[in-house]
Design a protein that fits this description.
- Chains A, B, C, D: It holds the Pfam family HD.
- Chains A, B, C, D: This is Phosphohydrolase.
- Chains A, B, C, D: GO terms for molecular function: dGTPase activity.
- Chains A, B, C, D: Keywords: Hydrolase.
- Four copies of one chain form a homotetramer.
- With about 400 residues, chain A is mostly helical.
- Chain A has two domains: about 1-215, Hypothetical protein af1432, CATH 1.10.3210; about 280-325 and about 365-410, Alpha-Beta Plaits, CATH 3.30.70.
- In chain A, about 50% of the residues lie in helices and about 10% in strands.
- In chain A, strands 5-9-6 form a three-stranded antiparallel beta sheet, sandwiched between helices.
- In chain A, strand 3 (about 185) and strand 4 (about 190) form a beta hairpin.
- In chain A, helix 1 (about 15-20) runs parallel beside helix 4 (about 70-85), helix 12 (about 195-215) packs parallel to helix 20 and helix 18 crosses helix 21 (about 375-385).
- Chain A is globular and about 65 Å long.
- Chains A and D meet through strand 1, helix 3, helix 10 and helix 15 of A and strand 1, helix 3, helix 10 and helix 15 of D.
Chain lengths: ~400, ~400, ~400, ~400
């Protein structure tokens, strides 16, 4: 057994299949992938990696299984899935996921190939675990898939606490000790035991507060968009042999150095390295954006960008259009026991609706550009995209009130 | 200048009028009043006092004023109000407030008398501060009253963080450092600067989660109701000379020993000392309770209790009816700047409505009794109070499912 | 099983005999005894109690036993001893221990009587545990007594961390998670496994730094001496029926109110309540104090006090002479495994000697008096006690340099 | 003014020259240099960077200067020096310092060139600061140099707390809030005010405990030695154009990718990436090592390595000899005020001598090798180096007792 000291969970004991998986290259690679990608450009302490997060998820999975009275092969399968759940990540974690998905057809939780091959596959088979069964758990399938990837999964419990610890933002401090302890199964469904409505709500609330403050902070979104643009250019560059699969297998070091070395990406690379970032030329609320734009696919977005650039008479590289998906309307299906009945948290808690509403009010379309072209590009974008009014941010920028936006911390 | 080490804010520097107020009996008395009254019967680490909380509020007030550029007499007046804002508390803080208010006509934030008299009055006048002006600030009046007692006051910022630190419940961890830093004045109104909607929401959310988990935990409510009943008996006891005013001036030690010494209260006192508490015989949601009962005054409540006892054929001391006030519908009037306009948080944030809804769904009427009479008294109470259905808790109790309720921690 | 939320160890699960002991009056009484007595007059957040500490010690004992592979009756006996180890404390924990020992002949860890009688005895016997065997463990006897009361006991591991958490002084932050995990038995001796020399040193160092900063802070010593004096007067007072046994059974509330109510102790009581404390008139290092004085018994100390008062022509109540015992020269017998051999930490670590030396250099004899008589009483004390030089503090006081000493925090 | 959220100091306000320095490439580069180099291979959470540490040092310097009453140009000069004190670091911080020093003649605190050139030089001159004067402060020269680099410097105060926060090892938790507050100047010397002997000791103790547990953990030393060997091979490789100066200017990404790409270093690189590290073949205490070896220079060490390899009949790349410098005998010259006199802490505190002793007892010479050759190379090394006995570790290895050494955490 190995004991590892973690800054969040203190001592983590690693045993069985997990002990053997620790030494595989696929897992060690996660030491070189930052958990929050470019968020460290906003919160300089946020340099934690997918490796320590994976250990934390494994640790919470062990506690949950012990509490649920699950052991043996079933437990080992979940242990493996918990530890391996992020090995499918490319460099900068989620930052490039839309790009690599377009090129490879896979999201990070599609790990059937990674788990079957090489050292990981060998270790799993040595422990009589079927790689595909473990990969299914990572994809959230089956009874225990909910524990690894679902509304009440230990993944979220770890990342909220860990991201709060490392950014210094206190909103992610859920009571994971209690949540893990109160999980139970009812008719094959993972539910929270009686008396835990607030504990379940706190998990949703923590995410709702961390989201705009950390994960979708405007500077994080800008730098992520710049990184994605640079990675696209890298893939397109004739001087470079990287394709989508190769990009997906890189770690942060590889990508950063590749962007520095490639002529086509050196400007973006310098800007990212020196934190000389684009600024917001437009920052529009959802009600001010025509519906078609929100549903636009990648090619259409690229076409809008070229049109805006032409209209503003600037180089197309100077315009980045960043359109988040429509806020998802999925019900919160977290299940809690209330007076002996299983209820969906969405039925029980008025907070759930409100948080969906908050998602709407926090949604923003962004157009980013070098600071000195902001005015010009902002006007062109409002025009080309048919934004209903001269959106909030454009006005702010005009009034010269954009000072707080240049701070690291909003 | 005095430097005091605090477990929450680390070093607190106390200077000027605050330094001189520290040594007054009125302030030192707060060392002997627990911040959360009987909550320590649920969370054993919650033994912090009004004294350290008062220091914390003073500390945050200093930071806020510095950030607002306020100094001189104006600042000293607020410093004094922040440090003194809780000197009007009786023993066990809020636990007996309804009782002492009935007897004295004063709530804890009515401190005009306390601030004018004795050592406190002397110190204030030595520093050229008018005691009444300071008392007005404590009551939340005037431009700076909002900072001491209002929607965005430093009182709440301190107690949420401090109560979380001492109970171990992580929901109160707001970003007080940021909130204090982002306060500003617009047209005499205290507002949060641009970009702080989430920070303001987090303050409301923290309270909404701490409320059912800590402040209104069922065991805290039961023990508070028992303490209140005992204190009433103490005031009524002919062997005891305590009146409402005297009760109000006691500290926790005085009251605990008085309850132990007085024949009429010794049973309640023993039960509280040994944590041998009443249990819930009824625990009913707001929709199951006839309107008249929610608005009942103290005498009507007492009359219901006697009726329930008679119907169940038990001693009236064995029945406690605990009816919280109707959830208040006050809008959240916290003001935030959004794109240059002052907006009320209630307009801007869908969370505010939801939290109001949550208050409704968390509201409970309780009837408490010795464990062995719970069934009988529960049935009688449903009958006497005309509860719409056989409310949730009664059913639970019948099914013998009440086990988690006997735990310290739900 | 009961789960209790603790501010230090998060969730503590209480089971078996411990669950039943929780509800005994002897244990619940500890809620009303502050862990650090008058230290809260220096560190206002230090209001934690012997109750939560007892839970913490129980929790660490459970972890240690699990790691050692001990279960069954043997484990239950240790669980009971851990939870009960402090039930012998009188009010204000150690503060009055010398006084109650003189009167009752018992120290706080002599709990044979308490454990045999009443509810505790019943619970133990119901769980087939012999009260005397548990009491022996509390006294540190036998193989597992070392775990409850010894050089490496879980008592110390809990209080260092807990006292640091509540005072805000960061020196007690040992790695208790590691220490508990690394305990092992070699030939009936509890030892720390290979590679833990620093972990063992850290325990000694933490105590060596917490000692002068917290436990023996001059203001804590002064207030403790005043409290002890007041308690002695209470026992001597004809108007009061308290004897040593009764004092020992009081909790903090009882004693505080008794001191307030008794004419003979009301002055000390008012001073303690209002933090209007005596000051140091003499503060002398060990080398400046004649040997006989250090060994003086209680009667001789009282006689010196009277002599000093007579010489200074003041009321004898105005002089308190506070002489700590000679620093104990016990070797650190903590055992650690180094390259396969059991070694005493004192042989292995040069720190141990140094910490002994530090004890010497921190030792101080104190004479305390009302501030306005400090000069006069200081000179008389130097004379009467035959202090070698005009000790450091006396000089300081003369030079008017005593400002920092009046602060809460040195 | 910019406000930055830090996981250790919460909000850091950056103003004046520091605000402008933030945006320079030299400072932004520190985001890509891990504070503790290969220590993250032992403590996976230790991924913090020189950038956030530099902000922390700047923050503490601001607090110290404010407390000392220093402002204006003098303060700005120290602010700049605090923020810039680490810009001279190469990749992996101290890990390669001996190598780059041999090649460039400069240590990391020799920053005269870096501060004069480019954007940093421009910013300094715009703020009327002489780059050389700032560089002198970084080198610890002059009255305020002590604050930036000395026995009581804010550099150490930050790194102890920060490294503890990120490794999870609790030994570095000094009371930096107090230390910074208690600094004062006496005759041009920075001293700690009266009553701070324990605060000063705690700083030394924290370092003494963090040293073997974190900074010189055997696995950190092994991986550092492997990295240094790889970097040497990189510099020697004809296929690579990197020289010492270029190496010094790299960041972690550059070096990691260069080692992966270069044929001569790919084996070491793979081992480091996959944490497939060498093990200890010898681990000898200072008394078992002939004096000449401890003083050996780089060439002699290399020659010993070749001789050991020849004697064991293995490839020279399989032997790494790691000989730390002789423990330095420098007195602790931290100055503290005791009873009005300035005293050196070394005179006042017996701990200082003891910590020097501890350094001796913790010193180890290491010989590292691939696990499967450990036995053979261990015997050869004992022979070639003339180690007095068959040192502890060799014996352990033979007995197959080396299990704990393979853990991440000792």
């Amino acid at each position: 057994m190995t004991t590892i000291k973690d800054s969040v969970h203190d001592h983590i004991q690693v045993d069985g299949v997990a002990r053997d998986l620790l030494d595989t290259p696929a897992l060690q690679r996660l030491r070189n992938i930052r958990q929050l990608g470019t968020v460290s450009l906003v919160y300089p302490s946020a340099n934690h990696t997918r490796f320590e997060h994976s250990l934390g998820v494994y640790h919470l999975a062990c506690e949950a299984l012990e509490q649920l009275g699950v052991d043996g092969t079933q437990a080992e399968r979940v242990h493996a899935a918990a530890l391996l759940h992020d090995v499918g990540h490319g460099p900068f974690s989620h930052n490039l996921e839309s790009l690599t998905h377009r090129r490879t057809g896979r999201y990070h939780d599609d790990v059937h190939d990674v788990l079957s091959d090489g050292a990981v596959g060998e270790v799993l088979r040595e422990h009589d675990l079927e790689p595909d069964a473990v990969a299914n758990l990572v994809a959230g399938e089956g009874r225990f898939g909910q524990l690894v990837s679902g509304e009440l999964d230990v993944d979220r419990m770890d990342y909220l606490v860990r991201d709060a610890h490392h950014t210094g933002v206190p909103y992610g401090t859920i009571d994971h000790g209690r949540l893990v302890r109160e999980l139970t199964f009812t008719d094959e469904e993972l539910v929270l035991d009686e008396g835990n409505v607030q504990a379940a709500e706190s998990l949703l609330v923590a995410r709702a507060l961390m989201n705009p403050t950390v994960y979708s902070h405007s500077v994080a979104r800008i730098s992520k968009a710049m990184l994605r643009r640079a990675a696209e250019r890298l893939l397109e560059s004739p001087e470079n042999a990287t394709d989508g699969e190769a990009l997906q297998r890189m770690d942060d070091h590889d990508l950063i150095v590749a962007l520095r070395s490639c002529e086509a990406t050196s400007t973006f690379s310098r800007r990212l390295d020196q934190r000389d970032l684009y600024k917001r030329a437009v920052w529009a609320e959802i009600d001010d954006v025509p519906g078609g734009i929100i549903e636009a696919d990648h090619e259409e977005i690229r076409s809008f960008e070229r049109e805006i650039a032409a209209s503003a008479d600037v180089d197309p590289e100077c315009v980045i259009l960043d359109v988040p998906g429509r806020p998802s309307m999925t019900e919160s299906t977290t299940r809690v026991l209330v007076n002996g009945d299983v209820r969906q948290l969405g039925q029980q808690s008025p907070l759930v609706d409100a948080l969906r509403g908050a998602q709407y009010s926090q949604w923003r379309l962004g157009v980013y550009s070098p600071p000195e072209m902001r005015d010009r590009i902002g006007r062109a974008a409002v025009d080309v995209l048919g934004l209903d009014i001269e959106g909030a941010l454009v006005r702010e920028v005009r009034n010269g009130m954009d000072t707080t936006l240049d701070q690291f911390l909003e």
